[in-house]
């Protein structure tokens, strides 16, 4: 009973979330496509982990309207992104450009990957050395056993 | 020995980064408009809607643009700070009444006091977008040339005024136009 009530509540709440973003209709399907891409790559600055496509904040609604109107006026995707960056800074796009300020953000993962490779390589090399050492010891032991057995056979 | 030192160093680096992260405010997004000409506007005045104010009208003065709305809770919190600042008569404070209803805005000013030389109405929030407004209240310091020199996001405190605004206004007033 408890579970089914919770499920019903969850379903009701999720419908609420889907219904927040209004639908904008374009005559030109290309513009529609650009619109969908744009609102999915612009960040809502009020609720910072949502795109303006996901957010029902007032500002997100205004920015969707702004994007819609600029597209209808015939502006390109680049022009609209520039417009947003001029006002809100690089933070407004989810795909930050490569600059001196964002360099660490882009390069750090590769540096960490490189460090990882070096560590793995070093570890496997040490392992191999140890293996060859133990192999040598074992070979010597086997040889000794063999010679002992040979001695026994000669008796 | 090395076996203990390396994890310890890594741990210390991690702690430093986490501590730095705690001190940062994720709401504080640097504005790209600092040290650039303030976006132009021409908006009707709240008290006299048939007249409007443009940014060019303010050239030659150092002034504050405070974005506020009657529906905004933090604006209520910072309002006494601007009331106090306005009594000092240091510089004109212009209110940008953001996405508000004129009657609600007027009522708000009558109730809480009016620190603004005048307020202009941005009913649709277009000027707000031009100024990169994302969290009301916001305050801009604009110099004699009409350039934005500083932006404060969120409620202004009297500490902010004393430590940041007053020294900055003094410095900007000393600049030639």
Give a nutshell description of this structure.
Chain A is an all-alpha fold. Chain A is built from 5 helices and no strands.
Keywords:
heterodimer; A: 155 residues; mainly alpha; elongated; B: 177 residues; alpha/beta; two-stranded antiparallel ribbon; 8 strands; 21% strand
Describe this structure in words.
The complex is a heterodimer of chains A (155) and B (177). By secondary structure, chain A is mainly alpha-helical. Helix content of chain A is 70%, strand content 0%. The radius of gyration of chain A is 32 Å and the shape is elongated. The model of chain A has no long low-confidence stretch (mean pLDDT 85). The longest helix of chain B is centred in the N-terminal third of the chain and has 22 residues, at 2-23. Chain B is elongated. The termini of chain B are far apart. Chain A binds chain B through residues 45-46, 48, 58-59, 62-63, 66, 85-91, and chain B through 26, 29-33, 39, 99, 124-125, 128-132, 134-135.
